[in-house]
Amino acid sequence: MQFKSQFELNWSNDSISKHFQNENSFNLIIQQDQIPIGLLIGHYIFQDIKLIEFEILHIALLPNYRNQGYGYKLLIELEKHLKIKEKTINIFLETGSANKFAIKLYEKLGYKIYNERKNYYGSKSINSPLSQDAILFVKSLNAIS
Ligand SMILES: CC(C)(COP(=O)(O)OP(=O)(O)OC[C@H]1O[C@@H](n2cnc3c(N)ncnc32)[C@H](O)[C@@H]1OP(=O)(O)O)[C@@H](O)C(=O)NCCC(=O)NCCS
Q1: What's the pLDDT tens digit per position in 55-102?
Q2: What is the pTM for the complete model shown?
């Protein structure tokens, strides 16, 4: 599936279609000239009357559209959507320790590291020959702030 390689989405086709059918999933796509150039995939992991917990499972821009503010826009758009429900919101995500651009983006938006998993990712790629730690981030926001 071209969609998978373009957005570096390392999931099986079955997992992708199950995700899009799941009622707890929420996804954002940025298009230019009706072509998807950016994607955020996530799901609600918990909701009650006071709290929403949401996990971002993947965010990616096509290579030619990176470092132009679109990743930032996708994350702000997600926050706007979640804030509509006027609850306390925790947004979780995870990335590899070598993904410096992603880490810069999350820190710029106020995401905080709450855990690390040492050597979580194996070394399958020639571009990242060493194993990487997983860095776990959370951003907490109050919907009425
Ligand atoms: C990580 C990714 C989603 C960032 O999205 P983006 O649209 O490129 O990021 P933005 O243009 O919104 O940049 C926001 C901030 O991130 C940092 N950043 C992003 N790309 C950068 C680059 N090439 N060089 C330096 N800083 C960069 C900067 O701090 C930037 O803010 P600034 O311009 O005010 O300094 C994008 O690079 C991507 O698709 N990467 C491949 C897939 C991936 O690794 N996804 C993350 C999985 S966890």
Answers
A1: 999 999 999 999 999 999 999 999 999 998 789 999 999 999 999 999
A2: 0.92
Asked if residues 138 and 92 have their Cβ atoms less than 8 Å apart, the reply is yes
Kindly give the distance from the C-alpha atom of residue 48 to the centroid of ligand 1, in angstroms, as a whole number.
Answer: 32
**In the chain, what are the domains?**
2-142 (3.40.630.30)
* Number of the ligand 1 atom closest to the C-alpha atom of 58: 47
- CA 66–ligand 1 middle distance (angstroms): 6
| pLDDT score, position 124 | 63
Distance 49 CA to ligand 1 centre (A): 34
Other beta carbons less than 10 A from residue 25's beta carbon: 14
